Amino acid sequence: MVTEAAPYGRKTQKEPPVKDVHIVWITAGLGCDGDSVSITAATQPSIEDVLLGSIPGLPTVHLYNPVLAFDNGDDFLKPWFAAARGELDPFVLVVEGSIPNEKLNADNGGYWAAVGTDPATGQPITTNEWIDRLAPKAVAVVAAGTCATYGGIHAMQGNPTGAMGLADYLGWDFKSAGGLPIINVPGCPVQPDNFMEVVLYLLYQVSGLAPVIPLDEQLRPTWLFGATVHDGCDRGSHYEQGEFAKVYGSPLCLVKLGCWGPVVNCNVPKRGWMAGIGGCPNVGGICIGCTMPGFPDKFMPFMDEPPGAKISSKAIATYGKTIRGLRTMTNNTVNKEPKWRHNRPELTTGYKPQTGGVAKSFNRPS
Protein backbone atom coordinates (compact mmCIF):
# COMPACT_ATOMS: atom_id res chain seq x y z
CA MET A 1 0.00 0.00 0.00
CA VAL A 2 1.23 3.48 -0.82
CA THR A 3 1.51 5.72 2.22
CA GLU A 4 1.69 9.47 2.60
CA ALA A 5 5.25 9.21 3.83
CA ALA A 6 6.29 7.17 0.82
CA PRO A 7 4.53 8.65 -2.25
CA TYR A 8 4.74 7.61 -5.89
CA GLY A 9 4.83 3.93 -5.06
CA ARG A 10 8.26 4.10 -3.41
CA LYS A 11 7.96 2.20 -0.14
CA THR A 12 9.93 2.43 3.06
CA GLN A 13 12.13 -0.46 4.12
CA LYS A 14 9.56 -1.56 6.71
CA GLU A 15 6.82 -2.06 4.15
CA PRO A 16 6.43 -5.50 2.57
CA PRO A 17 6.98 -5.75 -1.19
CA VAL A 18 3.91 -5.45 -3.39
CA LYS A 19 2.89 -8.93 -4.47
CA ASP A 20 -0.16 -8.19 -6.62
CA VAL A 21 -1.10 -5.20 -8.79
CA HIS A 22 -4.45 -4.93 -10.55
CA ILE A 23 -5.11 -3.03 -13.79
CA VAL A 24 -8.70 -1.86 -14.20
CA TRP A 25 -9.10 -0.81 -17.82
CA ILE A 26 -12.13 1.23 -18.90
CA THR A 27 -12.89 1.06 -22.63
CA ALA A 28 -16.33 2.63 -22.19
CA GLY A 29 -15.23 6.09 -23.27
CA LEU A 30 -15.99 7.33 -26.77
CA GLY A 31 -13.61 5.21 -28.83
CA CYS A 32 -13.09 2.13 -30.96
CA ASP A 33 -11.16 -0.22 -28.62
CA GLY A 34 -8.22 0.29 -30.98
CA ASP A 35 -5.77 0.85 -28.13
CA SER A 36 -6.70 -2.46 -26.50
CA VAL A 37 -6.21 -4.20 -29.83
CA SER A 38 -2.93 -2.36 -30.44
CA ILE A 39 -1.22 -3.52 -27.25
CA THR A 40 -1.63 -7.16 -28.29
CA ALA A 41 1.16 -6.44 -30.80
CA ALA A 42 3.62 -5.22 -28.15
CA THR A 43 6.93 -7.06 -27.74
CA GLN A 44 8.98 -4.72 -25.49
CA PRO A 45 7.46 -5.99 -23.26
CA SER A 46 4.57 -8.06 -24.52
CA ILE A 47 1.35 -8.16 -22.54
CA GLU A 48 1.86 -11.90 -22.20
CA ASP A 49 5.26 -11.39 -20.55
CA VAL A 50 3.76 -8.99 -18.03
CA LEU A 51 0.71 -11.09 -17.16
CA LEU A 52 2.52 -14.44 -17.05
CA GLY A 53 5.29 -13.22 -14.76
CA SER A 54 8.14 -13.59 -17.25
CA ILE A 55 9.85 -10.33 -16.26
CA PRO A 56 12.08 -10.39 -13.15
CA GLY A 57 11.12 -8.15 -10.25
CA LEU A 58 7.51 -7.56 -11.24
CA PRO A 59 4.56 -8.26 -8.96
CA THR A 60 1.78 -10.54 -10.14
CA VAL A 61 -0.42 -8.54 -12.50
CA HIS A 62 -4.18 -8.99 -12.88
CA LEU A 63 -5.79 -7.32 -15.92
CA TYR A 64 -9.49 -6.43 -16.21
CA ASN A 65 -10.06 -5.29 -19.80
CA PRO A 66 -13.39 -6.08 -21.52
CA VAL A 67 -11.75 -6.61 -24.91
CA LEU A 68 -9.27 -9.17 -23.51
CA ALA A 69 -11.39 -10.69 -20.73
CA PHE A 70 -12.64 -14.25 -20.28
CA ASP A 71 -15.44 -13.18 -17.93
CA ASN A 72 -18.41 -11.09 -18.90
CA GLY A 73 -21.44 -9.41 -17.38
CA ASP A 74 -21.61 -9.28 -13.58
CA ASP A 75 -18.61 -11.60 -13.20
CA PHE A 76 -16.41 -9.21 -15.18
CA LEU A 77 -17.52 -6.18 -13.15
CA LYS A 78 -16.82 -7.70 -9.71
CA PRO A 79 -13.24 -6.31 -9.60
CA TRP A 80 -14.52 -2.89 -10.67
CA PHE A 81 -16.95 -2.72 -7.75
CA ALA A 82 -14.23 -4.06 -5.43
CA ALA A 83 -11.86 -1.32 -6.60
CA ALA A 84 -14.57 1.31 -6.04
CA ARG A 85 -15.00 0.02 -2.47
CA GLY A 86 -11.26 0.26 -1.85
CA GLU A 87 -10.83 -3.53 -1.72
CA LEU A 88 -8.53 -3.82 -4.74
CA ASP A 89 -5.26 -2.31 -3.62
CA PRO A 90 -3.08 -1.30 -5.30
CA PHE A 91 -4.63 -0.92 -8.74
CA VAL A 92 -3.80 1.11 -11.84
CA LEU A 93 -6.71 2.73 -13.65
CA VAL A 94 -6.42 2.82 -17.46
CA VAL A 95 -8.96 4.84 -19.42
CA GLU A 96 -9.45 4.36 -23.16
CA GLY A 97 -11.70 6.60 -25.23
CA SER A 98 -12.62 10.26 -24.81
CA ILE A 99 -14.75 11.38 -21.89
CA PRO A 100 -18.22 12.71 -22.77
CA ASN A 101 -19.73 15.57 -20.80
CA GLU A 102 -22.67 13.96 -19.01
CA LYS A 103 -23.60 17.32 -17.47
CA LEU A 104 -25.18 18.05 -20.84
CA ASN A 105 -27.71 15.28 -20.11
CA ALA A 106 -28.64 16.43 -16.61
CA ASP A 107 -32.13 17.50 -17.66
CA ASN A 108 -33.07 14.77 -20.12
CA GLY A 109 -32.18 11.66 -18.14
CA GLY A 110 -30.02 10.22 -20.93
CA TYR A 111 -26.32 9.47 -21.09
CA TRP A 112 -23.53 9.26 -23.66
CA ALA A 113 -21.53 6.28 -22.43
CA ALA A 114 -21.89 3.68 -19.68
CA VAL A 115 -20.90 0.18 -18.63
CA GLY A 116 -22.65 -2.11 -16.18
CA THR A 117 -25.69 -1.56 -14.00
CA ASP A 118 -25.86 -0.05 -10.55
CA PRO A 119 -27.46 -2.73 -8.30
CA ALA A 120 -28.86 -0.04 -6.03
CA THR A 121 -30.74 1.86 -8.74
CA GLY A 122 -30.95 -0.57 -11.65
CA GLN A 123 -29.62 2.19 -13.88
CA PRO A 124 -26.52 2.12 -16.16
CA ILE A 125 -23.31 3.38 -14.56
CA THR A 126 -21.91 6.09 -16.79
CA THR A 127 -18.26 6.24 -17.75
CA ASN A 128 -18.00 9.53 -15.86
CA GLU A 129 -19.29 7.89 -12.71
CA TRP A 130 -16.81 5.02 -12.97
CA ILE A 131 -13.95 7.50 -13.33
CA ASP A 132 -15.25 9.45 -10.32
CA ARG A 133 -15.35 6.26 -8.27
CA LEU A 134 -12.05 4.74 -9.33
CA ALA A 135 -9.58 7.54 -10.12
CA PRO A 136 -9.16 8.85 -6.54
CA LYS A 137 -8.41 5.31 -5.26
CA ALA A 138 -5.97 4.28 -8.04
CA VAL A 139 -2.24 4.24 -7.36
CA ALA A 140 -1.80 5.60 -10.91
CA VAL A 141 -4.17 6.79 -13.63
CA VAL A 142 -3.20 6.29 -17.27
CA ALA A 143 -4.90 7.64 -20.39
CA ALA A 144 -4.38 5.24 -23.30
CA GLY A 145 -4.57 6.72 -26.79
CA THR A 146 -5.32 10.20 -28.06
CA CYS A 147 -9.06 10.03 -27.39
CA ALA A 148 -8.43 9.48 -23.68
CA THR A 149 -5.47 11.84 -23.43
CA TYR A 150 -6.81 14.91 -25.24
CA GLY A 151 -10.25 14.04 -26.63
CA GLY A 152 -9.20 13.09 -30.15
CA ILE A 153 -11.68 12.77 -33.00
CA HIS A 154 -14.74 12.90 -30.75
CA ALA A 155 -13.67 16.21 -29.24
CA MET A 156 -13.26 18.10 -32.51
CA GLN A 157 -15.18 21.31 -33.08
CA GLY A 158 -18.90 20.83 -33.69
CA ASN A 159 -19.24 17.59 -31.70
CA PRO A 160 -22.52 17.10 -29.76
CA THR A 161 -21.09 15.26 -26.73
CA GLY A 162 -18.75 17.88 -25.27
CA ALA A 163 -16.05 15.18 -25.33
CA MET A 164 -12.71 15.83 -23.67
CA GLY A 165 -9.53 14.13 -22.49
CA LEU A 166 -9.10 12.59 -19.06
CA ALA A 167 -7.03 15.51 -17.73
CA ASP A 168 -9.71 17.93 -18.92
CA TYR A 169 -12.25 15.91 -16.95
CA LEU A 170 -10.31 15.25 -13.74
CA GLY A 171 -8.24 18.43 -13.87
CA TRP A 172 -4.66 18.89 -15.05
CA ASP A 173 -3.46 19.11 -11.46
CA PHE A 174 -5.13 15.81 -10.48
CA LYS A 175 -3.04 13.46 -8.32
CA SER A 176 -3.72 9.76 -7.85
CA ALA A 177 -3.69 7.94 -4.52
CA GLY A 178 -0.02 7.30 -5.25
CA GLY A 179 0.64 11.01 -5.63
CA LEU A 180 1.07 10.81 -9.41
CA PRO A 181 -0.40 13.09 -12.05
CA ILE A 182 -2.34 11.55 -14.90
CA ILE A 183 -0.01 9.80 -17.34
CA ASN A 184 -0.90 10.46 -20.98
CA VAL A 185 0.21 7.99 -23.64
CA PRO A 186 -1.28 9.39 -26.87
CA GLY A 187 -1.50 7.79 -30.29
CA CYS A 188 -4.32 6.89 -32.64
CA PRO A 189 -4.04 4.12 -31.70
CA VAL A 190 -1.33 4.11 -29.09
CA GLN A 191 1.98 2.60 -30.26
CA PRO A 192 1.94 -0.83 -28.56
CA ASP A 193 5.46 -0.84 -27.11
CA ASN A 194 5.12 2.75 -25.93
CA PHE A 195 2.14 1.85 -23.80
CA MET A 196 3.47 -1.43 -22.45
CA GLU A 197 6.78 0.23 -21.60
CA VAL A 198 4.88 2.79 -19.51
CA VAL A 199 2.95 -0.02 -17.79
CA LEU A 200 6.26 -1.77 -17.05
CA TYR A 201 7.72 1.44 -15.62
CA LEU A 202 4.68 1.94 -13.38
CA LEU A 203 4.78 -1.64 -12.12
CA TYR A 204 8.42 -1.22 -11.13
CA GLN A 205 7.58 2.12 -9.56
CA VAL A 206 4.70 0.67 -7.52
CA SER A 207 7.13 -2.03 -6.39
CA GLY A 208 9.58 0.62 -5.25
CA LEU A 209 12.13 -0.28 -7.92
CA ALA A 210 11.92 2.80 -10.15
CA PRO A 211 11.96 6.59 -9.64
CA VAL A 212 9.02 8.86 -10.34
CA ILE A 213 7.97 8.66 -13.97
CA PRO A 214 9.16 11.80 -15.85
CA LEU A 215 6.41 13.67 -17.72
CA ASP A 216 6.32 16.74 -19.94
CA GLU A 217 3.85 19.64 -19.68
CA GLN A 218 1.26 17.63 -21.61
CA LEU A 219 1.74 14.74 -19.12
CA ARG A 220 3.47 12.52 -21.70
CA PRO A 221 6.46 10.35 -20.73
CA THR A 222 9.47 12.43 -21.71
CA TRP A 223 11.62 9.60 -23.04
CA LEU A 224 8.90 8.63 -25.51
CA PHE A 225 7.66 12.05 -26.63
CA GLY A 226 10.67 14.30 -26.10
CA ALA A 227 11.66 14.29 -29.79
CA THR A 228 9.71 14.97 -32.97
CA VAL A 229 8.72 12.66 -35.79
CA HIS A 230 11.26 14.50 -37.93
CA ASP A 231 14.08 13.74 -35.49
CA GLY A 232 13.70 10.01 -36.06
CA CYS A 233 12.35 9.97 -39.61
CA ASP A 234 14.13 7.99 -42.32
CA ARG A 235 13.37 10.89 -44.69
CA GLY A 236 14.76 13.65 -42.46
CA SER A 237 17.98 14.08 -44.44
CA HIS A 238 15.96 14.76 -47.60
CA TYR A 239 14.32 17.73 -45.87
CA GLU A 240 17.76 19.06 -44.95
CA GLN A 241 18.80 18.82 -48.59
CA GLY A 242 15.62 20.42 -49.89
CA GLU A 243 14.40 17.22 -51.58
CA PHE A 244 10.62 17.00 -51.35
CA ALA A 245 8.20 14.39 -52.65
CA LYS A 246 5.65 15.61 -55.18
CA VAL A 247 3.73 12.34 -55.43
CA TYR A 248 2.97 9.50 -53.04
CA GLY A 249 5.36 6.60 -53.32
CA SER A 250 8.40 8.84 -53.49
CA PRO A 251 11.21 8.17 -50.97
CA LEU A 252 11.78 11.91 -50.44
CA CYS A 253 10.53 14.16 -47.60
CA LEU A 254 6.73 14.28 -47.36
CA VAL A 255 6.33 17.81 -45.94
CA LYS A 256 4.90 19.27 -49.14
CA LEU A 257 2.31 16.47 -49.23
CA GLY A 258 1.00 17.47 -45.81
CA CYS A 259 3.38 15.85 -43.30
CA TRP A 260 3.52 17.58 -39.90
CA GLY A 261 6.49 15.52 -38.72
CA PRO A 262 8.90 18.43 -38.02
CA VAL A 263 6.68 19.74 -35.18
CA VAL A 264 4.90 16.63 -33.85
CA ASN A 265 6.14 14.92 -30.67
CA CYS A 266 6.18 11.21 -31.46
CA ASN A 267 8.76 8.42 -31.65
CA VAL A 268 6.98 6.10 -34.09
CA PRO A 269 9.40 6.58 -37.04
CA LYS A 270 12.29 5.79 -34.71
CA ARG A 271 10.63 2.87 -32.98
CA GLY A 272 8.54 1.48 -35.80
CA TRP A 273 5.14 -0.02 -35.17
CA MET A 274 5.57 -3.77 -34.71
CA ALA A 275 8.98 -5.33 -34.01
CA GLY A 276 10.68 -2.14 -35.21
CA ILE A 277 8.93 -2.21 -38.59
CA GLY A 278 6.61 0.45 -39.95
CA GLY A 279 5.80 3.91 -38.64
CA CYS A 280 3.80 6.41 -40.69
CA PRO A 281 6.47 8.28 -42.75
CA ASN A 282 8.63 5.16 -42.93
CA VAL A 283 5.98 3.45 -45.05
CA GLY A 284 4.97 6.51 -47.08
CA GLY A 285 2.23 7.98 -44.89
CA ILE A 286 2.24 11.61 -43.82
CA CYS A 287 2.21 12.48 -40.12
CA ILE A 288 -1.17 14.01 -39.20
CA GLY A 289 -0.20 14.85 -35.60
CA CYS A 290 -2.33 12.25 -33.83
CA THR A 291 -0.23 12.35 -30.62
CA MET A 292 -0.74 16.09 -30.15
CA PRO A 293 -3.26 17.91 -27.92
CA GLY A 294 -4.45 19.99 -30.90
CA PHE A 295 -5.41 16.92 -32.96
CA PRO A 296 -7.38 16.84 -35.20
CA ASP A 297 -8.61 20.43 -35.56
CA LYS A 298 -5.24 22.19 -35.68
CA PHE A 299 -3.84 19.78 -38.27
CA MET A 300 -6.63 19.91 -40.84
CA PRO A 301 -6.93 19.67 -43.77
CA PHE A 302 -4.55 16.73 -43.57
CA MET A 303 -3.32 16.60 -47.17
CA ASP A 304 -2.35 20.27 -47.47
CA GLU A 305 1.19 21.47 -46.89
CA PRO A 306 1.44 22.84 -43.30
CA PRO A 307 1.60 26.66 -43.22
CA GLY A 308 5.05 26.77 -41.63
CA ALA A 309 6.38 24.23 -44.10
CA LYS A 310 5.66 26.54 -47.03
CA ILE A 311 8.08 29.09 -45.63
CA SER A 312 10.71 26.72 -44.27
CA SER A 313 10.80 24.52 -47.39
CA LYS A 314 11.39 27.57 -49.59
CA ALA A 315 14.07 28.88 -47.26
CA ILE A 316 15.89 25.58 -47.28
CA ALA A 317 15.79 25.16 -51.06
CA THR A 318 18.94 27.22 -51.72
CA TYR A 319 20.72 25.81 -48.69
CA GLY A 320 19.75 22.28 -49.66
CA LYS A 321 20.98 22.72 -53.22
CA THR A 322 24.35 23.92 -51.96
CA ILE A 323 24.62 21.07 -49.47
CA ARG A 324 23.74 18.49 -52.15
CA GLY A 325 26.44 19.90 -54.43
CA LEU A 326 29.11 19.79 -51.74
CA ARG A 327 28.14 16.29 -50.67
CA THR A 328 28.14 15.08 -54.26
CA MET A 329 31.65 16.46 -54.66
CA THR A 330 32.78 14.69 -51.51
CA ASN A 331 31.03 11.49 -52.50
CA ASN A 332 32.76 11.48 -55.85
CA THR A 333 36.07 11.67 -53.99
CA VAL A 334 35.51 9.05 -51.30
CA ASN A 335 33.41 6.66 -53.38
CA LYS A 336 36.44 5.26 -55.22
CA GLU A 337 39.55 3.41 -54.15
CA PRO A 338 42.95 5.14 -53.77
CA LYS A 339 45.27 4.92 -56.78
CA TRP A 340 47.97 2.93 -54.96
CA ARG A 341 45.79 -0.19 -54.82
CA HIS A 342 46.85 -2.07 -57.96
CA ASN A 343 48.40 -5.25 -59.24
CA ARG A 344 51.38 -3.69 -61.01
CA PRO A 345 54.99 -4.69 -60.11
CA GLU A 346 55.70 -1.46 -58.23
CA LEU A 347 54.91 0.01 -54.81
CA THR A 348 53.16 3.39 -55.03
CA THR A 349 51.72 3.70 -51.53
CA GLY A 350 54.24 6.31 -50.45
CA TYR A 351 56.01 3.92 -48.11
CA LYS A 352 59.65 4.93 -47.56
CA PRO A 353 61.98 1.92 -47.03
CA GLN A 354 64.11 1.98 -43.90
CA THR A 355 67.89 1.47 -43.86
CA GLY A 356 69.87 -0.96 -41.73
CA GLY A 357 69.27 -4.36 -43.23
CA VAL A 358 65.83 -3.64 -44.56
CA ALA A 359 65.36 -3.86 -48.29
CA LYS A 360 65.38 -0.47 -49.93
CA SER A 361 62.94 -1.43 -52.61
CA PHE A 362 60.13 -3.87 -52.97
CA ASN A 363 60.18 -3.61 -56.73
CA ARG A 364 61.14 -6.72 -58.60
CA PRO A 365 64.51 -6.56 -60.46
CA SER A 366 64.23 -6.11 -64.15
Automatic annotation (TrEMBL):
GO cellular component: [Ni-Fe] hydrogenase complex; cell envelope; ferredoxin hydrogenase complex; membrane
GO molecular function: 3 iron, 4 sulfur cluster binding; 4 iron, 4 sulfur cluster binding; electron transfer activity; ferredoxin hydrogenase activity; metal ion binding
Protein residues bound to [4Fe-4S] cluster 1: C32, C147, C188
Ranges for region Disordered: 338-366
Main location: other
InterPro entries assigned to the protein according to its UniProt record, in alphabetical order: Cytochrome-c3_hydrogenase_C, NADH_UbQ_OxRdtase-like_20kDa, NiFe-Hase_small_C_sf, NiFe_Hase_small_N_sf, NiFe_hydrogenase_ssu
Subcellular location: Cell envelope
Keyword NAD: no
Residues annotated for [4Fe-4S] cluster 2 binding in this entry: H230, C233, C253, C259
Residue sites binding [3Fe-4S] cluster per the record: C287, C290
Entry keywords, A to Z: 3Fe-4S, 4Fe-4S, Iron, Iron-sulfur, Metal-binding, Oxidoreductase, Signal
Residues of the NADH:ubiquinone oxidoreductase-like 20kDa subunit domain: 32-201
Residues in Cytochrome-c3 hydrogenase C-terminal domain copies: 225-302
Swiss-Prot/TrEMBL GO biological process terms: anaerobic respiration
Cofactor(s) this protein requires: [4Fe-4S] cluster
Family statement: Belongs to the [NiFe]/[NiFeSe] hydrogenase small subunit family.
Assembly mode: Heterodimer of a large and a small subunit.
The protein's name in its UniProt record: Hydrogenase expression protein HypE
Organism: Candidatus Aeolococcus gillhamiae
Organismal lineage: Bacteria, Bacillati, Candidatus Dormiibacterota, Candidatus Dormibacteria, Candidatus Aeolococcales
